[in-house]
Amino acid sequence: MSIPIAALPQADLVTQPMPPVIETVGKTKRYGASIAAVLDLSLTIRHGEVYGLLGPNGAGKTTTLRMLLGLVRPTSGGGTVLGLPLGAPSGLDRVGALIETPAFYPYLSGRANLRLLAGLARAPLAQVDEVLAQVDLLARADDRFATYSLGMKQRLGVAAALLKDPDLLILDEPTNGLDPQGRADMRSLVRTLGRGSRTVVLSSHLMEDVELICDRVGVLQAGRLITETTVAELRGAPSLLVRAEPSQRTGEILAGIFGAEQLARDGEAFVIATDPAAAGEIARRLVIGGVALRELRPVQRSLEAAFLELTGSAGPAREDQP
Question: How confident is the chain (322 residues) per 10-residue block, as mean pLDDT?
Fold first, then answer.
């Protein structure tokens, strides 16, 4: 007998949120009494997102990833990966990882290296060509690993991490050392791998890469988590840059519209904390006010500028982004 929906308890009709893919509480790693690689780290990484650990070299990014994989034991604190304790074998079966530089047998082909790893990981051999296609290496699959460029070696490392078709993919500095085209190719690949239900966690000190790849970021400095937020929230709302002559009259008109507190100077230009949709009205008011409008465009600080401002590594910084 079917039960009317109205008769079901309220809780049964509500979709329960999925638990975090990764959750850590107070995770700390010390080496001796004086070196603290990671301090009191609490992370929450959600299902199906591309999450970036952002920070300069030595911030604790690689140590954090190693602890998530059970390669390094925390001094204190703990957490879960895919609902299981850090390093649990049954959890690692669903995780693919590339930590630091990929290592393969140099005189074996890319395909032979992956077939060897597939046997060790109990992955089907049919998966080898599938992951080679995903990373665009099928055409060079039978060439020796020693002949691969750095970008190809990185892509083969990602292919190895994909052999088990993991729910969670962890990548440590995947664009490090690549030329501009290689970085662009790797960014596109990681973004593609992060679509759908798979969660991708990557570390990087290259903020342009994180900005273009990630949905959310955790910012690390000296082993501590400074903030955990979306890339958009960290960059802040876009503003408008106005350049017109004479500058003094331009400032008077803009202050009359918005108030002096919403204006900032950028050399001879003004930056207005307002919705870029106001550009048309601003242009009209400036022309009526008798000034010569030279430039009017939206700007937004880069992730790098936001990071420098957040960490105090430099004074307030802004990079114009159209």
Answer: 47 63 93 88 92 88 93 92 91 91 93 95 93 94 95 93 94 88 89 88 88 90 90 82 89 86 82 85 90 87 78 47 42
Q: What is the DSSP letter of 2?
A: P
> In Å, how far are 61, 76, 211 from 313, measured between CA atoms?
18, 29, 19
Rounded Cα–Cα distance for residues 65 and 25 (Å)? 14
Q: Which residues pair with 29 in a beta bridge?
A: 38
Beta bridge partners of 44: 23
**Beta carbons of 75 and 112 less than 8 angstroms apart:** no
Q: Which residues fall within 8 angstroms of residue 15, CB to CB, at 6 or more apart?
A: none
What's the rounded Cα separation, in Å, for the pair 23 and 41? Answer: 10
The pLDDT of residue 8: 45
Asked if 292 and 245 count as a contact pair (C-beta separation under 8 A), the reply is yes
| Distance between CA atoms of residues 91 and 168, nearest Å | 10
- Whole-angstrom distance, CA of residue 312 vs CA of residue 236: 17
Whether the CA torsion 207, 211, 213, 214 is positive or negative: it is positive
Neighbour count for residue 302 (Cβ, 10 Å): 17
The reported pLDDT for the residue numbered 313 is 58
What CA–CA distance (Å, rounded) separates 284 from 209? Answer: 38
- The predicted structure's pLDDT at residue 5: 43
The neighbouring-strand residues paired with 84 are 81
Q: Residue 241: which of 306, 301, 290 has the closest Cα?
A: 301
Cα separation of 174 and 154, whole Å?
Answer: 7
Tokens of 183: 């970085």
Helix/strand/coil for 146: helix
Note the pLDDT of residue 124.
92
Pairing label, strands 50-54, 199-204: parallel
Q: Which among 44, 67, 64 has a CA at the least distance from the CA of 54? A: 64
**What is the reported pLDDT for 58?**
85
Question: CA 131 to CA 129: how far, in whole Å?
Answer: 6
